[in-house]
Amino acid sequence: MTREAHNCTIIANSDPKIVCSQVAALLRSSMENLADEKITIALPGGRSILLLLDPLFEEISTMHLQIRDQIRFFMVDERLVPIFHEDSNYRLLNEGFYSRCIEAELITSEQIFPFIYNANEEGLGTAKYKTSLDKNGGRFTHVILGVGEDGHVAGLFPHHPVLQVAGPGFSCFSDSPKPPAMRMTANADLIRNADAVILLFLGEGKTDALQSFFNPEKTTNDCPARIALDAKNVFVVTDLKDALGVALA
């Protein structure tokens, strides 16, 4: 099921594999419309993104070389650990997606930008990461976000001070309400400035978050996923069709 509601495009199917295949095809179409521009895709950590990696690989494998060469991958959030640490979001994406793309010669390692945590650098590495983004268009064209049970996205948790950090950059903080405590996140303004934000509400545990997202009485402080409503295009992706019906009632 695909429909428009609350200024969002909703993609819903009770089978998460089907809905993720639809999202991957949507991403491909959107990227092809930006053939003459840098395509900057921000990927998250977490469980939800794992379901999208296989279909995304398949879509990229059939793309024209000219399009693939324009793609740059960034992290929308990260744990402050070495990039190949067992807790690293980058390691998760590298094992399930990036390394496969490189091995298949779909992209090169120069198109992938992991966040490198450095305790001795400005912003613990965020200043350098912003410079890398600035050299590649200065913004995300596409942001993919797994939505947490509490409505958090990236490292933006309900009622956390980092939600109020202004500017299209990145922030580190050491008091995450969800372990590990030390994290990096894209700022809210960086998400708002994207051409397209894709929100993954996958799994029974996301029912409350989905309903909060569509509740106009909720603020972005209550449900940070609602930050995406300020982006040019918003896509709500879910396998919770029954919960979706309640949310839109």
Describe the structure.
There is one protein chain. With 249 residues, this protein is α/β, with parallel strands linked by helices. α1 (16-32) crosses α2 (50-61), α2 packs parallel to α4 and α7 (207-213) packs parallel to α8 (241-248). It has one domain: Rossmann fold. An eight-stranded mixed sheet has the order 1-2-11-10-7-3-4-6, with helices on both faces. A three-stranded antiparallel sheet has the order 5-9-8. α7 (207-213) links the parallel β10 and β11. 46% of the residues are buried. The chain has helices at residues 16-32, 50-61, 65-68, 89-103, 126-134, 188-192, 207-213, 241-248, and strands at 2-5, 8-12, 39-43, 71-75, 77-79, 112-113, 142-146, 170-173, 183-186, 196-201, 233-238. It is 31% helix and 20% strand.
What oligomeric state do these chains adopt?
single chain
* Cα Rg: 17 Å
Number of strands: 11
> How would you sum up the global shape?
globular
Overall helicity? 25-40%
What is the distance, rounded to the nearest whole angstrom, between the alpha carbons of the first and last residues? 16 Å
Strand content: 15-25%
What order do the strands of the largest sheet run in, or round the barrel if closed? Answer: 1-2-11-10-7-3-4-6
N to C succession of SSEs: EEHEHHEEHEHEEEHEHEH
CATH topological fold name: Rossmann fold
Q: Poorly predicted ranges (pLDDT <50, ≥5 residues)?
A: 1-5
CATH architectural category: 3-Layer(aba) Sandwich
Average pLDDT reading: 92
Treating each run of at least 4 consecutive H or I residues as one helix, how many helices? 8
CATH domain class name: Alpha Beta
Major sheet characteristics: 8 strands, mixed
Query: What is the total domain count?
Result: 1
Structural class: alpha/beta
